[in-house]
Amino acid sequence: MEASNISSLVEARRLSCSSRRGVALLEVIVSLTILVITSAAFTVQLSQALMAVARSQSDEALYQQADALLVAASLWPRADLDRRLGSRRQGPWLLTIHRHSPTIYDISVADTSDAERPLLTTSVYRPVRTARPTYELH
2, 16, 91, 95: most buried by Cβ count inside 10 Å? Predict the structure, then answer.
């Protein structure tokens, strides 16, 4: 009987070891699955962040180009602003000039693909020029 007890103990131990190996293998598989899922989520987040940075840089370049036109238009004298009242295409931009009062002009720059939403807007003051008095020397 002792031999049968020993062999049954050895058999139980062997089954216990193989079941531990099976559990360890299962733990490794679960850990790898969690690692893969986490890595995939991180990769998606990283790609979205990179796309946002690229879009931001593209938008910044667009705004700088629109700003160059807005600055140039804001330096125009009154006669040039009056001549360009309304909306007109200036290269890739839609430049709109409105006069709210005899001295105040609103200038806006929009992308021609979305003319309803201006990228930049400003108001400028241009005084009304009156005739200068002439002085006669006696």
Answer: 95
